[in-house]
Amino acid sequence: HAVEVLQMGAHTLAHGFAELMLHAPTLAATDWMVEEITRVPPVIASTILVNQTLRDDREFIGTIHVPTQVLFGGDDKATSPKAGAWIAEQIPGAELRIFEHSSHCPFYEETELFNQALGAFLARVTRA
Q1: How far, in Å, CA of 95 to CA of 105, rounded?
Q2: Angstrom distance (rounded) from CA 116 to CA 81
Q3: What is the pTM of this model?
Q4: pLDDT tens across 71-117, in order?
Q5: Residue 128: exposed, middle, or buried by beta-carbon count in 10 A (0-12, 13-18, 19+)?
Q6: Are 17 and 45 in contact (CB under 8 A)?
Q7: CA-based angle 35:79:74, to the nearest 5?
Q8: Could you give phi then psi for residue 25, rounded to 5 degrees?
Q9: Cα torsion through 30, 24, 26, 12, rounded to 10
């Protein structure tokens, strides 16, 4: 059903996604996100939606053997932070960082903290 809605009324579905992806949605942030989401042609967007929904990458995650930082929002409206903890547990040496005032977009909602966490991780990785 979501694929049909995406192909026939992308703005409606995108608005619903934006509300889930933001911890504290504002009209400006939701409008911006809907505009960005709907830039993708419906045939491509529906392919992405089906792929990310139906594809099971759990086996692959355990094969990652490079420095990894898992960054997740603490608000579980879109994706549970428990999923982030599970991912970090599967990757040897992975770091987990939960952003308590974010949903799916900590890079947007907690930009400064996100950039600090990512910058510190990159500094550690490049020194190694």
Answers
A1: 18
A2: 20
A3: 0.83
A4: 999 999 999 999 999 999 999 999 999 999 999 999 999 999 999 99
A5: exposed
A6: no
A7: 100
A8: -60, 135
A9: 30
